[in-house]
Amino acid sequence: MTKRKSLVLALEPSPSAAEVTGTAETEAETTTGITSQTTEEVGTVDPAALLDYTCPANIGIAINDRDGFFEWYDHDTAQHALKANSSEFEDFLDEKYGAWGITPNEHKALNANWIHWYGDHLLHSESRTIYESACGTGLTLFIIIQLLYEQYDITGIEAFGNEYIAEDVVTANRYYDWAVEHYPELDLRKGRICRGDSTNLTSFVPTNAFDIVMTGSIDVIDDPLHLGVSDGEEHRRWCTSKSKVKQTSMKEEQKEINRWFALWASQMISLVKSGGIVIIEANSKPRCEVGAWGGVSKEWWAQAIQEYEWDTQLGIDPASLEIIDFDPSSQYEGLLSASLDIIDFDPPTHYNGLQDRYNVKMTKRKYDSIVFLLFKDKNVFYARTLTDNNVEGRHHLSSLFNALDAGFECKIKLCVFDVCLCVRVRKIII
Fold it and tell me: Which domain of life is it from (predicted)?
């Protein structure tokens, strides 16, 4: 059996940044909530009101904001900010951005390989909200919105997002204000684009609220164990060393990178609606495998769904996991490895840039009204579904409630001693 893991990084994160879902509740609170439930009708929640949230005034320092990491983005950030100040947006899609080494239009040609993930989902969605975690200047999401119009005739996308770099947040907001006017065929709507930490989104962004939550890439965490081996060639020697100490250090480093990716992904999963999808683009493979800063293996995602309880706690359907290559035709082989010289990084020769990256898609289960029994066993409340929708068997109460969409509520119909018959109809408050 796979051991379940909690998301605790060995990086001494602040308590707020380490919170994964922001929805944890104690058993005492759970039992109190059950006994206080009534049979009163519960009103509906206006979706528009749910998405009218406030950007945080202060966000603190991100876990990976150290050793000048974000200087990697300085050049592109400054160039875009300069033009945004003068509202010179016409050429944005043909200028290199986000330290990718390619333009948005070149990126768009790659996105066309998996735009069906977005289009097939939104064709059957009543609303069309997309949230981008770490949106930069907003151009990655914008080219996706263009593709949805060009290939699916989908319009009316409402775009939301967050970005850690303050200058990029200003640029993104200005660009979308401009794009709404200059691309009328898209019927584009701009939602909130805030400065925010992608490892702490649930502190200010509503959960279970968006049709699609995506990111163009998960920011890496450089040298998470402070080993002093950020240099690519030196790091490769550690990876291939026969020293048990170095081998152990590399294994521990990869574990920290795994936790970092899990922290990001958990926050994204929390924001998506039941039935919605999470798309994580341009994931890098493990550092000892491809060099650069590194990421996680393709196989890791299926393991993570179990280990970090994305299935039971956040409602991800394990069978929904899909993975495709980011650059399937190897059009940009070696691209990023050449551009890494910007920060005096010496990449190993086996790093093939965008060719070594891949995309991930996961779906959160969709639930309608679910009838289930609440019962107590040895002072612990459990739930057994009577009409289950991919929820099977006996579940610890908090796990079941967290797995179900937060847009539902348990309405008690009948209670006999410690057993209650419930219908999940709106949001439960426990």
Answer: Eukaryota
For the question of whether the overall pTM of this predicted structure is more than 0.85, the answer is: no
- The b-or-e profile of 201-239 (16+ CB within 10 A means b, else e) is bbbbbbbbbbbbbbbbbbbbbbbbeeeebbebeebbebb
Tens-digit pLDDT profile for residues 358-381: 999 999 987 644 455 555 555 544
**Residue that terminates a domain, selected from 314, 335, 363:** 363
Q: Are residues 233 and 332 both part of a single domain?
A: yes
The answer to whether 54 touches 205, Cβ cutoff 8 Å, is: no
Tens of pLDDT, residue by residue over 143-196, are 999 999 999 999 999 999 999 999 999 999 999 999 999 999 999 999 999 999
Mean pLDDT for the chain overall: 75
Burial 26-61 (b: 16+ CB within 10 A, else e): eeeebbebbeebeeeeeeeeeeeeebeeeebeebee
Last residue of a domain, one of 337, 363, 389: 363
Task: Give domain status of residue 120, yes or no.
Answer: yes
Q: Any idea what the CATH number is for the domain that residue 133 is in? A: 3.40.50.150
Question: First-to-last CA distance in the chain?
Answer: 31
Total structural domains within the chain: 2
